[in-house]
Amino acid sequence: MWFFARDPVRDFPFELSPEPPEGSPPGPWVLHRGRKKATGSVVSIFVYDVKPGAEEQTQVAKAAFKRLKTLRHPNILSYIDGLETEKCLHVVTEAVTPLGTYLKTRAEAGGPKEQELSWGLHQIVKALSFLVNDCSLIHNNVCMAAVFVDRAGEWKLGGLDYMFSAQGNGGGPPRKGIPELEQYDPPELSDSSGRALREKWSADMWRLGCLIWEVFNGPLPRAAALRNPGKIPKSLVTQYCELVGANPKVRPNPARFLQNCRAPGGFMNNRFVETNLFLEEIQIKEPAEKQKFFQELSKSLDSFPEDFCRHKVLPQLLTAFEFGNAGAVVLTPLFKVGKFLSAEEYQQKIIPVVVKMFSSTDRAMRIRLLQQMEQFIQYLDEPTVNTQIFPHVVHGFLDTNPAIREQTVKSMLLLAPKLNEANLNVELMKHFARLQAKDDQGPIRCNTTVCLGKIGSYLSASTRHRVLTSAFSRATKDPFAPSRVAGVLGFAATHNLYSMNDCAHKILPVLCGLTVDPEKSVRDQAFRAIRSFLSKLESVSEDPTQLAEVEKDVHAASSPGTGGAAASWAGWAVTGVSSLTSKLIRAHPIATPAETNVPQRPVPEGHPAPAPTPVPATPLASSHWETQEEEKDTATAEDSTTADRWDDEDWGSLEQETESVLVQQDDWSARDQGSQDERVRQNSDHKPAESDWSSWEAEGSWDQGWQEPSSPEPPPEGTRLASEYNWGGAEHSDKGDPFAALSVRPSAQPRPDLDSWGEDNWEGLEPESRQTKAELARKKREERRREMEAKRAEKKAAKGPMKLGARKLD
Questions:
Q1: Which of 163, 148, 138, 180 is nearest to 60 (CA)?
Q2: Cα–Cα distance, 274 to 263 (Å, whole number)
Q3: Distance between CA atoms of 325 and 634, rounded to whole angstroms?
Q4: Which residues pair with 147 in a beta bridge?
Q5: pLDDT above 60: residue 630
Q6: Which pLDDT tens digit goes with each residue over 27-49?
Q7: What is the secondary structure of 328-390 as a DSSP string?
Q8: pTM of full prediction above 0.70
């Protein structure tokens, strides 16, 4: 019937590539590229066409087919499938390239490194040791044509056509009949008497010497060329000379050859070989050994071949994480190897592991993921970020470890563009509100302000209107000086998101209050910001037609492009604060906030103690800082008369400003000791409240998250409130007011809550609101006192004066 005549080659599950065959080595086989029909995976196919009159070669090919099918070893060519018909033989193996072709390709790209060659030769010698010592087989064909290289750069021993048993079973060695292969035969084989004493491995070790010579010097022209080592490394010359010695009895066993090369100073004693040997035995290693190995692996990956990292190191890293409980130590080498992958490969191999890692409760893994997020964020799509990553990341905002809270805040710079409206405008803002108001770490409050300024352009228009002004206003009242600087720069970085009304009624009053700040760095930035906003207002006043153009971004939808305009601001701010916070945390990893403060200068008796100042890094010289500021102020003064060039200016390093706090404090106090009382009163007013984690989680509302910190302790007796000063009246107090010439208090008028975030109460942020409350409280006390005096006077007038000794009757 017809089905008995079907072509078996057509039904074979593998097909040959239409491309011409690769440079096949000498021998009966032709090497083709191929692929599996079902999956499309790439393979190599060795094809032998049966020819009439070549029965001897056909028997050799069939013997090789059988040997390759039964021998299994990591360093021997891997058999996948085969086909044997009357017309041809097909042997399917892993995808490989002939060693000669591989070395030629690498030479064109700069040549293989010595460590790569050392590991390749190590694999071939190990395969020979397996054949000779474990299987009692003689390969009988060790040469360049019998070695192949897989996609990971691993060398595989093939060419099993002329193999025979060392015990004499099955007859002697088969005849090759190919001159290109017979030139590698040792000289003792030409001795017809057979009296030369030799070991079973002697011939193969001679051929191994020929292979080493060809690897370093190219094709072997004749056997006499073996006397000159040529380019063979000096560390290998001694062992090489033993291989090509005339006396076959002294040629070493493959196992001893490996031992000699692995000795200290030997050719195969290097980091690359050690790494490969460890990876081969990683399944039986102790957990402590694995941890140490992965910690040191990252340093070595830069010197390893790219193919080796992609196809050998990466699978082992993924396996170690999936089944070996390797933990966070695999992250650094994993992301380093990920750089060699294409976008598609990254999605398939790395992203599933990263998503799984984010659900881990291991703090070390979480913080390393956050620190290295920029390496994989571009490969994450929005649904994955919002549903599988962000819900786990937000737990870091509530972590008791300051380092994790800080890294979580900084990671929002990368996650914000991919967050949906609910996560960005509601969930994230809730956590930012709590951090800025209640976190006990000044640098973390500062980072929150910086991050909010950077992601402001991604927020919706309604959220921007409710959040930005109030949040930056709060930052300008923070006792931590860099936070106040960040608040000023936050206004600057988002200047295009405010209406002219907001600039005039909300922002400038806040900035003007900072012109008398105790820290010079804060005052300098405040003056620059004021000049910029005034220039903007003045330009609109001169030409009202510019109003629409200036306010075009105020009511616009979230615009990621705008966020890029402030990239330089966000970059230096996060970098500066990050290093500062890391120094603080490393210096006092478990200390309470009070323990991380430097001693303060003595305070006069009767005044509350000032808020502690965190320890900064090594401060800059004040002269250097002032020179920078003078240059910047000069540039700003020149630009302010023409146009608003806020985005084009270099705002310096927040870390430098932080480091200069103590120096500027000393200079300021030396110039004006009288401002010490006001500084003490300011610090007392803005003392941050302790974080109440349980109440925040239970209530979870904006009102609780953004409430003003706990009210300060009452001042000592004799200390006057700010509301008791005569800010603009005709009467003057006996004692001169140091700010009388600087500040003019506006009349207290009821006005709408301009800083309200929807239904939330933000009145606590406005200084005028606080003054109004204090004024109302004082008036109520005065009215109550007058009422009591009036009642007493009425009682006295009704009853008349009491006589001495008279008894009072009700």
A1: 163
A2: 12
A3: 59
A4: 157
A5: no
A6: 788 898 999 988 889 999 999 88
A7: GGGHHHHHHHHTTS-HHHHHHHTHHHHHHHHT---HHHHHHHHHTGGGTGGG--HHHIIIIIH
A8: no
